[in-house]
Amino acid sequence: MYYAHTSPEGGGDWQELKDHLEGTAKLAQEFASTFGAGELGYIAGLLHDFGKYTRAFQDYLKRSMAGEGVSRGEVIHALQGAKFANEAISDSVIADIICNVLATHHGGLFDSITDGQRTLIRKIDQSENKLHYEEARKEFSPSINEAELKTEIINFCGTGHSKDLNPLFMLHFLTKAIYSCVVDADRCNSAGLEINDTRPDWVKLIQQLDAYLTSFGEDSDIDRVRKSISEQCREGGGRQQGIYTLSVPTGGGKTLSSLRFALAHARKHNLKRIIYVIPYLSILDQTASKMYEVFTDDSGELILEHHSNIELPENDDDDERHRLLTSRWDSPIVLTTMVQFLETVYSNRASKLRKFHNMSETVLIFDEIQALPIKCVHLFNEVANFLQTFGKTTILLCTATQPHLHKTERPVRLSDNPDIVNITSDKLKVFERVCIEDKTQSVMDHKQIAELVVKQIKQNKSTLVILNTKGDARQVYEQCKKVECEKAFLTTDLCPAHRLSILDRLRKNLKPETRKLTLCVSTQLIEAGVDVSFDCVIRAKAGMDSIIQAAGRCNRNRENAMPQSVFVIDVQDEKLTYLPEIQDGKAVTARVFRENQDSNLLSEKVIERFYYYYFHAQKNKMDFDVQGKQTTIYSLLSDNPLGTVAYRNRNRNIYAGLPCAFQTAAEAFSVIEGAQIGVVVPYGDALKLINKFENYYIPKDKLRILKQLQKYTVSVYSNWMHRLESVRAIEAIDDTFYLLSPDYYDSEEYGLRREALFSYLNV
């Protein structure tokens, strides 16, 4: 009798290997069938633990259970299945797909070519006393119907060709999809998890949203236009699946309107979930709060917030704790960030890609899509095309300033008549609430910016100042300390709970019935999706999209019938070395301002011109350049000329398989330059939650606490982590996350106390 591992229920029982392989294969087949690759998923699932059919592995299991010292991975069990598949499958592309999945299902997909050689051959070319391959093959030698596998690949490529999609890039995604299906099926079967494929009760959720919306009146013209937008989104939910746009002026009620579309669409097409992808944590915080207001969720299972504030240790073993603490993204509503989304689909790791297949059969809403980094444009477009074309997913791109993603060299394939909302010119006039005043003719230092602030405050105007850097924001705020009014300071050095507390205070101060004259100095985190309305906004020059988003925080609800001022300024000695996209956007905005001095700077014509110039100037950056390698991530994951030329030079023939460099691309990819790590800060209930976390032992309870701790975290770059470690300002909690010392967090104003660290280090 051969065993896979001990039973997930414990009690000394063992799961038979035959049952595990068949169970994993059937589940992987079910998952992969959505992508038209059920047979590929089945074969990969059936062969994934092929190498456990050896005496060496069975002895390893017994020694492990007896408490003897064993090392994870000391007995190879993944490469044997890859070797078997490689011998049985003659088609090089199919072999590369399945064999890579099999060989790496506990780690990460590898490059197909290494140093001019086929990587798989290098890995499986090991002696019999290491692989015990012949021994395993005598015990388990399933038949593979290659014709069925070829049919799936041919159909897949034919579908992609009909939409003019890059076949190699799409096959790279198919490999990741099958990998995701097999990894998740393996972990779920090993843990004895029952997969609940019951679709959410969309009708019930629609009723809850409708009830919430009826509580709002129609007291003003802007309320009536918002209702019209909402109704059009509900009606748009009845459209066929595809890629659509929701282009609504700031303050148009985009969040709830897009939700209305998503619920109606999910019901119409019997989809599995709704995933909101949001650029900034500040918007995610607000969106999550809104969702909890709208929906009654006694189970706590309806909404999942998943971002990078706390990342669990990347451990791909079969340990139950890590398995259950890994999110599968199987909740009906998932809220995540663009960073988390892109770093999932462009990872090669099992721990991240496990949830990739659960992006299928969904409504994917990308909020504030204009914030997509320029280097990621083509990579984003292609994953959107893949998920819509092959994953039965509908995608909605939301913004007040729709970027020209469909006009790039590798365009997103929008549906016919993609706009789900049509706003007439008469209704658009309702959103004419501000006027842009260009004050960039000369630069302003921090003192001069403060003087401009004082002038507005003296006119009894609550004022918002948005700067591009934390340093400038801090200096301007310090200059304004003596201004007589309520004051607030916002940067990402504050944890989400702290920011939400400040935003709640701001909203109260800005309401007509509880009004207090207020100044807020912030970085750009406040400018998109945050529901506040000031009498005046001062914005450091950046891209026109940022300026327009900032303008959306001014006179938002048309509290003042006259248009209010949004001053655009140029900050003296602004340090944008690490913010190249702001610097590039700034340069294009300067050109647009020069060419349109007598025009309405918020007009559609001006915005169109900005994107035309900006995307044209940045078109060579959209494939994501890999520093030092004279290649791009797009190239690495498609034809990979660096690898194929090396292979041809070494072997004197053309590489016939799938040449994608999965590992090299993943290691080079990062949405934000420089790794960031989430650190829990001593704010609010954080310390109480940590105490509970340390005293709980059931993984599900620990996961619940971790979710709650996300709102008490601050993300810091690795160089800051080293500094904090050097002064013992952080401690590791249960090898899962870090806790910051109270000496380095200001719970009143500034959050992370960088100056205290500088002082300690004498920097």
Q: Would you write up a description of this structure?
A:
It is a single chain. The chain folds into five domains: 3-191, Hypothetical protein af1432 (Orthogonal Bundle), CATH 1.10.3210; 202-421, Rossmann fold (3-Layer(aba) Sandwich), CATH 3.40.50; 433-601, P-loop containing nucleotide triphosphate hydrolases (Rossmann fold), CATH 3.40.50.300; 631-667, no CATH class; 676-761, no CATH class. Helix content is 46%, strand content 14%. The chain has 32 helices and 24 strands. Strands 5-10-9-6-8-7 form a six-stranded parallel beta sheet, sandwiched between helices. It has a six-stranded parallel beta sheet with strand order 11-16-15-12-14-13, with helices on both faces. Helix 2 (38-47) packs across helix 5. The termini are far apart.
Write the layout of secondary structure elements.
Blueprint: E1 3-6, E2 14-16, H1 17-33, H2 38-47, H3 55-65, H4 79-88, H5 92-103, E3 113-114, E4 117-118, H6 119-124, H7 128-131, H8 133-139, H9 146-162, H10 167-191, H11 202-213, H12 221-236, E5 243-247, H13 254-269, E6 273-278, H14 281-294, E7 303-306, H15 320-325, E8 333-337, H16 338-345, H17 350-353, E9 362-366, H18 377-390, E10 394-399, H19 425-428, E11 434-444, H20 446-458, E12 463-466, H21 470-479, E13 486-490, H22 496-510, E14 518-522, E15 536-540, H23 544-551, E16 564-571, H24 580-595, H25 604-618, E17 625-626, E18 631-632, H26 633-636, H27 641-651, H28 662-668, E19 676-680, H29 686-695, H30 699-709, E20 713-717, H31 718-726, E21 730-733, E22 737-740, E23 745-746, E24 751-752, H32 754-761
Parallel strand pairs: 5-10, 6-8, 6-9, 7-8, 9-10, 11-16, 12-14, 12-15, 13-14, 15-16, 19-22
Antiparallel strand pairs: 1-2, 3-4, 17-18, 19-20, 21-22, 23-24
Helix pairs in contact: 1-2, 1-10, 2-5, 2-10, 4-5, 5-10, 11-13, 12-13, 14-22, 20-21, 24-25, 29-30
